[in-house]
Fold this sequence. Notes:
The chain has 23 helices and 23 strands. The chain is of the alpha+beta class.
Amino acid sequence: MSPKCQIMTKYRYEIILLSVLAGISMWIIDAFLDAAFFYKETFIELLITDIPSYELYIRSMIFAGFIVFGLTISRTLSRRFLSERRLKETEDYLQALYDISPDMIFIHGEDGRLIDVNGNVEMTYGYSRDEMLDLMPEDTMGKGYTFEVALKRIHQALREGYIEFEWMARKRSGEEFPVEVRLKRIELTGKDGSPESAVIALVRDISEHMETELNVIKYTRDLEELIKISREISSTTDLRQIYRTVTDSARVLLDLDCSTLMILSDDRKSLAIKETIGFPGTMIDNFVLLEGQGLSTYVIKHKKPGKVIDFRSETRFEVPPVVFEKDITSAVCVPMMMGEEVFGVLIGHTHDKRDFTVEDISLYRSIANNAAVAIKNSMNLNTLSDSESRNRALLEAIPDMMFRLRRDGTYLDFKKARDIETILPPELFLGKNIRGTMPEEIADKAMSNIEKVFKSGNPQQFDYQLETGGEKRSYEARLAMSGEDEVIAIIRDITEQKRSERELEQYRRHLEKLVRERTDELDKRIGEVEMLNRGMINLLEDIQVSYDRARKMSEELAETNAELEAFAYSVSHDLRAPLRAMQGFAGALLEDYAGKLGEKAQNYAKRIVAAAERMDTLIQDLLVYSRIGRSEIQLTPASLKREIDEVLRESGELIKVKGAHIDVGGRMPEVMCHSSTLRRVVSNLISNAVKFVDEGAAPEVHIWAEDKGEMTRLWVADNGIGIEAVHKERIFRVFERLHGIEAYPGTGIGLAIVKKGVERMGGSAGVESEPGKGSRFWIELVKS
């Protein structure tokens, strides 16, 4: 329905009533005119008198015309009435909008003059409407906005229809504020009724908007800086770098004069400066605050940020003297926390008085939170790295081969041993099962012990033999659980240990034979002594006790053949005691009863003393060999020259007796060694060099050193009897002698001690020799 039809429908009853009233009025007027001018009847009579039909028709037509005329007039009046009413409503509505608009509204003429302003202009600028109309643009706008600039903008808006720009406005008080100006051309009716162009200006105060934008920009900048800081401190584990980055960034972001990071001690009783900007660098790690001193300890205690506006009026805690010495006035401090644990603080100081805002503290706290995570991570990573380094060093120090296996026997990882070669390259057994890479017997034994580990939870051990490099070698495997479904296997080559055990067993048998021989001989001597003097019964009973103790010691050694240390202890204490007793008693016989003993008995007694001395020397050498093999060796740098000089000093008597000439030549570098072990090795080499010479020849010994890559080789050359090539390896074994004891005394253990000692120090030993041309023994040690 059109707007006109809506109006007609809304006021239809009023229009019909007006039309009927108009028709009736015309009827009455017609009767009145007839009575007055045309007919003699009265007005009433004409209204009720019958009228001829044609006249009635004419009157009806006239009456209908009046009705139509009335309706037309009524409709026209209704339209005008409604239009005026709508116009009034529109004007009231626009005026209300004009008056209550949150924007300031200015209306300018084409000539730039100000025609009108709304009420918001008066409230904002502080001028009345009349005062505003008399002002120039430069009175209400900021610097540079003159009348010419205003007129130029108005003409631009008249041409283009609409423009907008930002400017600075000025209130009556002189305060300036940013505004957004929108100019739009409008058409007004002039005083003479002609159209007149004008410009309406909508001016909006954008102070809050710009402040919001500035806050957003600042927030964005701070966020970018926080992200940058977080990246920098998360990309390193260097605590000093983290401390420096955090303190420097905090100083810049919060515009601080001093920025300091402090860490709580392990006992949580003091705070130490770890980094500072603005305070002397000497305070780092040296300046400490105790509980109750300074804002930092206050923040630690309460686990929340704190600030000081003026230290001169601070009463919550004791102010450190350095604050006043550095002319500090204000401070802000935030805790660095991980969960509920405080482990440090960030504290900033300013020389000027400053009340730090909530936003400042929030930003500072964000920096502290990021720093806390980075510092703790760095500490944990450093601890983990140290632990890994220690574990790696321990693993590297272990000479054994190590495997990591699953419960089903699959190889997961392995560590190579220094002296053990795998039967397959790692790429051929890693990821595969032990049953497919080892002989069936060994694989079954390994899997059985793996199951025992998981069932008992205790480590397991087993031995096996495997042929590698054409030689059957013995190995010891130790298994331990390393996870819910994993075990660690440590493999040690015990071939040499087994060989040593066999040699030890051989020595024990040899020792038992010696004891038996000496026992038989002693029995004979006891019989002879009984025949000579019954007074020797008590002495012989003591000798028998010593004999029994020696036999008991031999039985104990046979029972504990796998325990070298126990053997060494027994040799050191139990075996040497009866030998000393035998030696002592035999010596007492010679000293106290020589006149009562025949020449043969004296000879027997002397032989007992000599045999006991030889056995004691042999035992002492064995103990030395045992200690070198099992004692802990700590290698340290040492001078070869100093060690050789000390050996020569200690061996001076032997050298003098043998008439030997010792020549030490050339440079003697420093080596990694165990000092006492190295001296014993060199002493044995010099002893051999001066001992094994032709009868009547003066020993000539030459000692020098040379570089061998990462090793240093020390030579000891002599003019002795020499060694056949087939015996070069044999002489380094225990109890191996190439000559009879009558010709060249000794135990046959000296060179074995040399080889064992050098190997314990990470080196090796050898000899170059020809019979009759002397020998050149050498040892190699790691350079210092």
